[in-house]
Amino acid sequence: GVKYRNPYQPSQDGNTVELHIEQAQFADNAIRYQSTLTFLGSKFSGLKNAITGGR
User: Fold this and answer.
1) CA dihedral in degrees (25, 17, 6, 10; nearest 10)?
2) pLDDT above 90 (res 43)
3) Most CB contacts within 10 A, which of 2, 4, 20, 40?
């Protein structure tokens, strides 16, 4: 379905984007993405060590 946020206070020009909320959501997404990459990197490193016998 369509996902959108209801604006707290739309501007007079009709823009309903809340910049501070969008920036906070972007930062949260960036942190989650980086954490996922770090987690997967360590998992792949562990699998590589198991396959190669730690060499």
Assistant:
1) 140
2) yes
3) 40
